[in-house]
Amino acid sequence: MTVSVLQTGEAFPTITVDTLTKSTLDLSKPAKGFDWKMVIVYRGMHCPLCTKYLKELNELLPEFQALGVDVVAVSSDSLERAQTQLAEIKPNFEVGYDLSIEQMKTLGLYISEPRLGMGAERPFAEPGLFVINEDGVLQMIDISNVPFARPPLASMLMGVRYYRNMTDKPPINGRFK
């Protein structure tokens, strides 16, 4: 089994998923009017911490958008499960569903199996967060193997704001050697 290890400074892979708004979403391309993109991979309906995280994202969304950042979220949940979870959140950002195991591997995500009492319907991705700059390359990456070890969205906003307000092109930090 081959799993990718994405690195900052590399092009974000082209991955498309269906969305709750009945369209197709290319995770690598920002929506019109934006030049950066933040992709949040969440575990799915069975994860109450994900619901809380997505609610917070909805609240901070205008600040990310004011910085020129298109924000999307995606999970491996089915359409029905995604709709059920997101009905409570009422997101103002695009949400994709049915992220495949192959796509999870391409993103270098941890993949967990459903366990008794968990409520997951199939293998799912653990949290991941990717910030893609105007050149289509990874500016920031955070991949976790558990739902409670992901970056606070306020910290992400602070970091994105810092980079976006630089007069020079922001540096791309940290690369595996």
Quick structural gist:
This protein has helices spanning 48-66, 79-89, 101-106, 153-164; strands at 16-19, 24-26, 36-41, 69-74, 94-97, 111-112, 124-125, 128-132, 138-143.
Q: Which features would summarize this protein structure in a list?
A:
177 residues, alpha+beta, two-stranded antiparallel sheet, 4 helices, 27% helix, globular
Fold blueprint:
Blueprint: E1 16-19, E2 24-26, E3 36-41, H1 48-66, E4 69-74, H2 79-89, E5 94-97, H3 101-106, E6 111-112, E7 124-125, E8 128-132, E9 138-143, H4 153-164
Helix pairs in contact: 1-2, 1-4
Walk me through this protein's architecture.
This protein is 27% helix and 21% strand. By secondary structure, it is of the alpha+beta class. It has a 7-stranded mixed β-sheet. Helix 1 (48-66) links the parallel strand 3 (36-41) and strand 4. Helix 1 (48-66) runs parallel beside helix 4 (153-164). The chain is globular and about 45 Å long.
Shape type? globular
Number of strands: 9
Q: What portion of the residues fall into strands of 2 or more residues?
A: 15-25%
Rg over alpha carbons = 15 Å
The ordered H/E elements are: EEEHEHEHEEEEH
Q: pLDDT average, as an integer?
A: 92
List unreliable stretches of 5+ residues: none
